[in-house]
Sequence to fold (142 residues):
Amino acid sequence: MNHTIAVLSDIHYGDAPPEGLSQRRADLGAVLLRRAVERFNRWIRPDLVLVLGDCLDRPEAAQAADRLRELRAILDRLTCPWRILPGNHDLPPDGFHAIMPRAPEREDVGPVRLVSFLDPQDDGWRATRLPAPAIQTYPEIA
Fold:
């Protein structure tokens, strides 16, 4: 039996960059996500969609939570289940999961086992992979 898992990452939704300073079009994040959701629902019809972080461009922006809510509303239009993990450009996990659903620590999707965990990061947004026993899992699941 075949299973289709679609993966999205690095939406980086935010403000438009000042003219000529960046090629990153953070202002198009919600538009592009909406298009992806429509394509998944109409043509691809995956069994699961994984969103692998960096939903926001600047988590410190005043509009960050509102933008995350907007992305949540778009993802809720998916006709298949979806899971999301925060990235290093997203709100801290507690704030992120006040808006986005928390992925189970372990979940089987057909023949695939998904394992969710958070890597610690330093002040420069660099994640560090810890040895398996030290990996931080979600508190209520650990």
